[in-house]
């Protein structure tokens, strides 16, 4: 769902089921584009072609923009594999309690890595920490001008899905800036339809 930003929608999503080698896969992802949606659109079309491992192949060929990503692959309804780059987040609801499965890649948390690559983290009063004074995340895809100082290495988590897990929320940072994980879970827990829950 689009927020109230003053620029065109730059986010993309994937939500589909497919059968691969006798395994039923649920494929879900949110891509939060910035400075244009080219990278987010590219990731949307190539997500499950090993793109997380081959990002250097295409990063230099796209425009100046970039994207964060949070992905979830549900394998046979039992095993959930979550990978993220940036500050889009995956949260599951287990017996009413929120559990974050992804890692927010904030510049202040990864300052040492950024500085080891020759970059810097600005911390201007009234603003959030930014890589080289520009980007508010320490990891992203694309961003050609900052590529030397950023990482596109995903964090990966595996969760076994049992009867205690009620649902998963995938969302970009726009949601998490205004709601805690638990608030997000409680706001939709009573809604059974996923499309209705997404529009709350």
The proportion of strand residues reads: 25-35%
H/E element order = EEHHEEEEHEEEEEHHH
Tell me, rounded to a whole number, the average pLDDT. 81
The second-level CATH architecture is: 4-Layer Sandwich
Largest sheet data = 6 strands, antiparallel
InterPro entries: PP2C, PPM-type-like_dom_sf, PPM-type_phosphatase-like_dom
Organism: Sesamum angolense
Protein name: PPM-type phosphatase domain-containing protein
Domain PPM-type phosphatase: 1-200
Structure description:
By secondary structure, the chain is α+β, with helices and mostly antiparallel strands. It has a single domain, classed as Phosphatase 2c, domain 1 (4-Layer Sandwich). Helices cover 18% and strands 34% of the residues. It has 6 helices and 11 strands. The strands form 3 sheets. Strands 1, 2, 3, 4, 9 and 10 form a 6-stranded antiparallel sheet that branches. The longest helix is centred in the first third of the chain and has 9 residues, at 38-46. The protein is globular. Mean pLDDT is 81; it is low at 51-61. Residues 1-200 form the PPM-type phosphatase domain. InterPro entries: PP2C, PPM-type-like_dom_sf, PPM-type_phosphatase-like_dom. One of its GO terms (molecular function) is protein serine/threonine phosphatase activity.
Summarize the structure.
This is PPM-type phosphatase domain-containing protein. The protein is an alpha+beta fold and about 200 residues long.
What are the salient characteristics of this protein?
single chain; 200 residues; alpha+beta; Phosphatase 2c, domain 1; 34% strand; PP2C; PPM-type_phosphatase-like_dom
């Amino acid at each position: 769902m689009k927020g109230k930003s003053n620029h065109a929608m730059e986010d993309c999503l994937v939500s589909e089921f497919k059968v691969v080698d006798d395994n039923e896969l649920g494929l879900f992802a949110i891509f939060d584009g910035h400075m244009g949606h080219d990278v987010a659109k590219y990731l949307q079309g190539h997500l499950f072609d090993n793109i997380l491992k081959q990002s250097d192949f295409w990063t230099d060929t796209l425009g100046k923009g970039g994207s964060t990503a949070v992905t979830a692959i549900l394998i046979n309804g039992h095993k959930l594999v979550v990978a993220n780059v940036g500050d889009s987040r995956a949260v599951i609801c287990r017996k009413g309690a929120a559990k974050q499965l992804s890692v927010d890649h904030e510049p202040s948390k990864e300052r040492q890595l950024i500085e080891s690559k020759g970059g810097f983290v600005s911390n201007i009063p009234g603003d959030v920490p930014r890589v080289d004074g520009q980007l508010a995340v320490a990891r992203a895809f694309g961003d050609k001008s900052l590529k030397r100082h950023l990482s596109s290495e995903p964090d990966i988590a595996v969760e076994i899905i049992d009867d205690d897990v009620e649902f998963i929320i995938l969302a970009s940072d726009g949601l998490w800036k205004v709601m805690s994980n638990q608030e997000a879970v409680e706001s939709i827990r009573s809604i059974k339809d996923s499309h209705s829950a997404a529009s709350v």
